Recover the amino acids of this structure.
């Protein structure tokens, strides 16, 4: 992802703000939401990949 930020500086040249495109902002928000979901589920039990595939097949979500 190419963010290409533009910076706003104060009178002393210190960066105070950043400007990015709306598309880049939305992409960053999606990534942040994904990371939050991962963090929320960190303590959940895990299952084997093969078991997960079996459950998807049983629910009709995945076909061979």
């Amino acid at each position: 992802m190419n963010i290409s930020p533009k910076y706003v500086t104060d009178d002393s040249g210190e960066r105070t703000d950043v400007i990015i495109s709306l598309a880049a902002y939305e992409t960053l928000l999606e990534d942040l939401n994904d990371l939050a979901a991962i963090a929320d589920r960190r303590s959940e039990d895990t299952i084997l990949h093969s078991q997960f595939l079996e459950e998807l097949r049983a629910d009709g979500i995945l076909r061979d």
Observations:
- The first strand starts at residue 6 and ends at 9.
- The beta strands are 6-9, 15-19.
